[in-house]
What does this fold into?
Amino acid sequence: MIVLDYRDKRPIYEQVVEKMEHLIVCGGLEANSKLPSVRSLAMELSVNPNTIQRAYTQLEQDGYIYTILGRGNYVTSRNEWQTGKFEALRQDFMSLLQKARDAGMPLSDLSAIIHEVYAENEEDVTHD
Amino acid sequence: MIVLDYRDKRPIYEQVVEKMEHLIVCGGLEANSKLPSVRSLAMELSVNPNTIQRAYTQLEQDGYIYTILGRGNYVTSRNEWQTGKFEALRQDFMSLLQKARDAGMPLSDLSAIIHEVYAENEEDVTHD
DNA sequence: CGAGTGTATTAAGATGGTTAATACACTATA
DNA sequence: TATAGTGTATTAACCATCTTAATACACTCG
It folds into this structure.
């Protein structure tokens, strides 16, 4: 379900959060489906249960999963986290765009990247 | 010249690198102008000279400054780091755009943000 | 020469990530 | 009711990294 990158210098719990979030956002995990238990995932990744517990706590705070005591952790439905996710992405985009503008990066470069990633969605949109 | 944010949990040397880089990229520091000495900036920020030394070493590795032994640290001219900077920004954009696409963020939202930040440069660009 | 500079080394303290060993409360099931 | 599986909490220890501290050395400039 998840593979750790040991060259990654970030904490393990952050990697678990990131990869779980990616799975959920991309639809790899259905809403209300059950996640691996704290102990089983810890066993699978050869890490301590506390580390997984910390990751799950973070995911719950971010709204991606919910917990039922004694039963397990489950995936939250999309509409519960999508608004917050969009806002976070907006913040990141603002920050990154300001850096790009300050560095003198041409608007055309950004446009090219956007159209490369959003290849399917092409219709109009990107100008006034 | 620089103000530290003590609520920021990142290492001090990272903050110094970030703020110096920002100053250089935004033109707040001219090419070939002299930076504060390791000891004087350490004094000014009330941190250890080793911490500033580490920041300057990082800035040099990233191509933003160059060092002359016994004389000081100086700002590199724009064309020496701009290409690398653009490439790094491109990488970040790709990564962020993929996340936005996966989360189902509409192209129109991105367009709005871009036009907000790149207000002056408006011409056409963002569509084919 | 002397002051200012970058650089290197070593030791110590502080913080945070991780492991480890337990313990407790809850839920589902035989 | 018992048992197993679950989330959760606590405490201690280990380790890596950031930071400070105290020095020392080589270089440049006046």
About this structure: Chain A touches chain B through 41 residues (CB under 8 Å). The beta strands of chain A are 65-68, 72-75. The helical segments of chain A are 12-25, 38-45, 49-61, 78-102, 107-117. Residues 11-13, 47-48, 50-51, 54, 68-72 of chain A lie near DNA strand C (CB under 10 Å from a C1').
